[in-house]
Amino acid sequence: MMTWENRWHPLLERWVTVTSHRGSRPWSGGRVTEAPDAPWFDPSCYLCPGGERISGIKNADYTDCFVFDNDHPAFKASAPAPEPAPGIYQSARAEGLCRVLCYTPDHGGRLSGLSEDQFKAVVRCWRDQTDGLMAAAGYEHVFIFENNGEVVGVSNPHPHCQIYATPFVFHTVAQEIQAVARYRQADADNLFDAIIRSEQADGRRILVETDDCLAFVPYFAQLPYETFIVPKGSWQRLPEMPGRVLDDLALVLRAVLKMQDHLWPTPQSYILSVHQAPKSLSVDHDYRCYIRLQPMLRGPGLQKYLAGVETGGGQFLNDGSPEEKAAELSAAGLLVSKES
Asked: Do residues 227 and 207 touch, judged by C-beta distance below 8 A?
C-alpha cells in the first residue's frame, strides 16, 4: 500500500515526509557492490591485534573488546586555544576525549556476527566506558557510535565503534531532551512511554519485544529501515541499567542487526548511535537512554542519499513506508531463525 503523507517526529519536533511511491523510481546512479571477504587478520591494519598505529603504539594481542584513545581525535584535552572570533561569532577549545573500541580481533567480522556472549561484552564495555568518563572531571556527555560500511565513510573496515566524551551535549540529544521536557509540560506524560504505547497499540512496526526492551521501525522514521531499540524502564544512561537489561538490550540489538544483514546479498551499511543523558540532567527528567540504528541502503545496492531537501532544507523524505520496511525486516528475521 502506498504511503504519502507527513508524519510528526516527536523527539526532533519536525515533520518527516513518507513518500513510499518514490521507492521504485528509475535510478541511473551508482550502486553499492558487495565487498570481498576480508581476512581474519590484516598485518597492515592499525586496529588488528599487534598492529602498529600511526602514533607508533602497538595494539595489545587482544582476544575480546579492546579500547584505546583515538590517534586522530576530533576532541582532545590538549586542543589548542582558538583564534578570537570576529563580530557576533563565538569560539571555544575543542576539548574532550575520543576513544576507539574494537569489538573483536576478527578483521573481517561484523558486529552482527558476534556470539551472544561477545555481544553482551560489547554493551557492557559501552556501560563501563560511560561510567568511567561520566565520573571524570570536565566531561558532561558521552556519545557512542559506529559508522559501518564504505557508503557511511568508515575509515577502517575492522569492526569497531567510537566513544566521544565532551564538556557539552551533542545537538541531537539536547534537542531530544528539550522535546521530552516540552511533552511532559504539555501532556503530563513521559514521551518515551507514549511512543512505546503507540507502537504496541499498532503493532505493525514492532520487530522484537521482550520484557525489558522494544525494537521497532518508528512511525516517524526518517530513513528506510531506521530502527529504535528502547528499554522499557526509565534509565537515562547505560550504567544505570541492571545487568539483565543490558544483556537484553544487547540481544535485541543483535537480532535487529541480523535482520538488516539478511535483507539482501549486499550487507547493510548503517550508523549506530547510543543516545544517553548528560551528567547534569535532573534525575527526575523523562529522557531515556536508547539505541538508534540508521541504515543507509534503501534497497539492494542502493544508497539513501541525503541530498538537497534533506541536507539543504532539513526536510527528510523517507521513500519507504515504515510499515512495509518493518514487515521486510521481520521476514528477514524469520530467515535468521531458520538458519540458526
From this structure: yes
For 124, other C-beta atoms within 10 Å of its C-beta total 16
Q: Is the pLDDT of residue 26 over 70?
A: no
- Domain residue ranges of the chain, discontinuous segments joined by +: 38-78+92-299+324-339
Q: How crowded is the C-beta side of 120, counted as CA atoms within 13 Å?
A: 11
How far, in Å, are 32, 294, 317, 333 from residue 29 at the CA level? 10, 22, 18, 30
Q: Is 9 one of the catalytic residues?
A: no
Q: What does 264-327 look like in DSSP terms, one character per residue?
A: SSSPPPEEEEEE---TTS-TT-----EEEEEE-EEETTEE----IIIIIT---EE-S-HHHHHH
Tell the residue number behind the cell numbers 523524505, with chain if given.
317
pLDDT band at 27 (very low <50, low <70, confident <90, very high): very low
Among the listed residues 141, 160, 262, 275, the single catalytic one is: 160
C-alpha cell at 216: 521497532
Which residues are registered as beta bridge partners of 230? 214
Question: Domain 38-78+92-299+324-339 sits in which CATH superfamily?
Answer: HIT-like (3.30.428.10)
**232: exposed, middle or buried (Cβ count in 10 Å: 0-12, 13-18, 19+):** middle
